[in-house]
Amino acid sequence: MTKAIQGIDKETAPGGGAVAATTVTARGTEPAAGRGAALRVEGAGISFGDFRAVQGIDLDIPAGEFLCLLGPSGCGKSTLLSAMAGFIQVSEGTLTADGAPVRGPDPELGMVFQSSEALFDWLTVKQNVTFGPRMRGMSRAEQNGVADEYLGLVGLRHCADRYPGQLSGGMRQRVQIARVLANEPGVVLMDEPFGALDAQTRQVLQQETARIWSASGCTVVFVTHDIDEAILLADRVAVMTAGPAASIKSLYTVDLPRPRDESDPAALRLRNQLREDIGEEVRKAMRDQGLDDQLDREAKGA
Q1: CA 97 from chain center: how many Å?
Q2: Is residue 288 part of a domain?
């Protein structure tokens, strides 16, 4: 059952979480029709020995969607992303890409890491981007075409012959994105890729990421701690509960026109709801750690 509350539609999810959607009449530009793959996570749990990182995860991510995972530190966002990439296996439930079980790393599932150290420092920018296609046996001419296309997409054709150490942090992250896209994945998984960058570079790359996603048609799952970043980029935002044994608390549909305007009243309402949602989980985590006195002092303004 759905009930409209001050411009926000709230729906109770099967697990008891709230599914919310902003109500805005103007729609954003849809991503280009392309190669996006659908991800489905059903009843998934991930454990490491006796430690239960996440449990009961249910997510249905349509092809071409941009989904942000948001939640308190340590709630298992990166763990869930690693499972989607095939780096670790779910302990229970299922995880599929276009209906096929995810059993291990696959070029169809591209990962962009937070650290640009994932690049090969001894290879040029062009060689980094063509590494995957070269391993798949592409001809030199095909590799050159791939490099030209994807370095052009991220605005780095002029850096093709440089080495990663000669680039800024933001440029290295763009090389990472180009290298992932060169494998033509159906899903691009991004683990706080801009977390280590300065605010101005981060803002530029957020805008570039939205443009690249629209041009490529890929499905994107993006882990972030930044509420504003999630609102700027996402079609939907999945908020996770505090860990351990974290699950999906709520889902929000960001129905705002692109490019996004952070001062839009609907964006501000959504930001406040997300802050409240995540704040509840942070307070819960602190109480579980026996930090009730600190919470009381903060509530009193001490």
Answers
A1: 16
A2: yes
Q: Tokens at residue 252, please?
A: 């929000």
Is residue 176 situated within a structural domain? no
Count of other CB atoms within 10 angstroms of residue 12: 12
Is residue 46 domain-resident?
yes
Question: Which residue range is the domain that position 288 belongs to?
Answer: 2-108+185-299
Dig out the tokens for 152 from the structure: 């052009």
The CATH number of residue 245's host domain is 3.40.50.300
Cα gap 237→44, rounded to integer Å: 18
Q: Which tens digits make up the pLDDT trace of 281-294?
A: 888 877 777 666 66
Confidence at residue 2, expressed as pLDDT on a 0 to 100 scale: 29
Q: Is the pLDDT of residue 137 over 50?
A: yes
Higher-pLDDT residue of 88 and 25 is: 88
Contact 181, 189 (CB under 8 A): no
Provide the domain count of the chain: 1
Decide: 76 and 53 in contact? Cβ < 8 Å: yes
* DSSP three-state, residue 220: strand
pLDDT mean over 106-118: 87
